[in-house]
Structure of histidine kinase:
Amino acid sequence: MKIPHLQPLIPLLAALLLSCSGGSRKYEIGVSQCSEDIWRDKFNQELRTGAYAYNDVTLHFASADDSDMRQIEQINRFVNRGVDLIIVAPNQTNTITPAIENAYRHHIPVIVYDRKSGTNHYSAYIGADNREVGRQMGHYIATRLKGHGRVVEVMGLRGSSPAIERHEGFMEALKAHPGIQVAATLQGDWTGASAERAMRRFLKQDKGRIDFVFGQNDRMAMGARDAILAHDRQATTRFCGVDALPTGDSGLEQVRDGLLEASYIYPTRGDEVMELAMNILTGRPYEREKKLKSALVTRENANVLLLQAEEVARQSNDLKRLHDKTNDYLSRYNTQRWMLMMAVVILILLVAAIFMTYRYYYERMRINEERERMQGRQLDFFTNVSHEIRTPLTLIADPINHIVERGRLKDHDLDTLRSTARNANELMKLVSDILDFKKIEFDTAGNRIDKQDNISDKNVPECAETTADATESEPDGGRETLLVVDDNTDIRHYLRTVLRERFHIVEAADGQEGLQKAREHVPALIISDIMMPVMSGLELCRHVKADTATSHIPIILLTAKSEDSQVAEGYKSGADSYITKPFSSAVLMARIDNIMQSRDRMRRLYARQTVSTNGGDATEPTTTARNDDLARPSARDQEFIARLHDVIQRHMVESEFSVEVMGSEVGLSRVQLYRKVKALTGLSPVELLRKSRLVKAEQLLRSKDMNISEAAYAVGFTSPSYFSKCFKDEFGMQPVEAFRK
């Protein structure tokens, strides 16, 4: 009996577990940077700090390292991951437009910041006004040069929106000052090294004086400065840039130290970007195009700005430390809450288990009482059946014996024969009633018996199953099946004529058909030609010996090939015998007899081994069996017997253990299992299981570990009285005698 399911507790457990989880929505935000530098590191840190104000926000950062293809892959990866929002700083204006539009089509909000993209399919843009940056630096340089001088501009990455817009703003401002000549517009890529290389090339071509250099960021301005000073240590050229970052050798320190005359703050404002992202995700109003404010930095205000930046950095570190401590406290709180809830769940399960255990034992007691009542009913049933069978048998056997003893028929014998026929029909009806499982409504366990083959010691059903197994598995009057495989019709007809008195013959015209019929019929022996279309006899041998269902079947090869190498190949393929054509039917019959006798010895050996192994210690093979190749099973068959032994051992106690379960455990159908076990042990699966159970029970009784009822139940019997009957039939003594020994 199974303990009842805990289904009523599932809603309660689910509610407890849900109460442990937070109710707030968790957001994932992907950040795609076009490159890595200190400006973008500052933005990323500000973004993380801004996320502290919101619960359950996870940031995923990726850098394209100035590669358009890599940034496209990263954005698509964010889309496939299903993030809630993507923040993008495009490497160039148009190259990653398809990736941004793809995210937008997937209904993922996109924030474009710093640099612009060549599409309107985004949720919002936030960044500084780069055209105004260029314009302000142009006015500043014109003012410092008093409207006259030569200027060189160093642009950022070609095709990026900041480089284009700063250049346009710069040139627009200088148009108002015709006395200022733009000597060259050099191309860089936002790094100091690229500006230094571009300036060195320019200085080789131009020998004129350079009054001012405008680098579109501070690093390129410093790179141009290094190139000019390396060319002429006395140069009076002045330099200015953009960014004015306060960290490490950045523009703000360089302005303070006089290396740069001025810089223009290019704001990062990661906190504002995070606020914009959360407004979009939570459905609050937001500005689609937002320009960040900025200012010019000169030597006069650089020191003040540095002090402010240091204070902001200190406060940011304090905030991060407080945030980490808060997360630690929350983690401990959540852990303690989970432990408390698990303790409550365990307590509930414990109470439920106690209740279910009580119900289980109460139900078991009720079923045991019902089983005892059913056993009494069954005893009455079999007593009545015995009487009903003996009566017609007496009226059949005795009159016929009289007629046989007299040796001739008389006139009144016709009435006697009518009476005999009538009682024979009556006996047939009684037998049919016994074999009809629907006439027996319940077994000793109180379970309804369906029309199926149960390997159980449940009185009449087991006998009926054994008979059904034998009837289904032994066609044509109990003769064993022999499979003939040959593509020559005359050979097949001749073999049928020679062998039909002893075997039920099944034919196949090629190896493939033969393999199919071998698996279907599981014959006692296969006789096959070698040279056949579709599949040769050697291939048939290999397939048959490799299949668990057919590996035990002996194979005789008939062929015209007689060379030693060909014979050796046949034996290597798994053949048990090799007869060359033309052959004598007497030799063939003798070889068949020899093989069948060897197989009989193997059956007897394996029957002893298997039953003994299932019951206790395995016996050693006899000397005859060890010296007889045909009587010694293959490794695959030994493995099968070992698996079968293991299955019987594991399921021996189960009274409901069925043929289908045994077959599924070893990978065979019901018919294949019957014929395989019968071929290897000479016993049907039912007989093998019953013998194994009885041997095990005898050992338990002799060891006095259990009484008779306990031993019966321990090996799968459900009726001690039926167990006693089977025990006496097997060992010739009652179980109590074995218990006393």
About this structure: Residues 1-6, 437-473, 615-628 have pLDDT under 50 and may be disordered. Residues 481-605 form a domain with the Rossmann fold fold (CATH 3.40.50.2300).
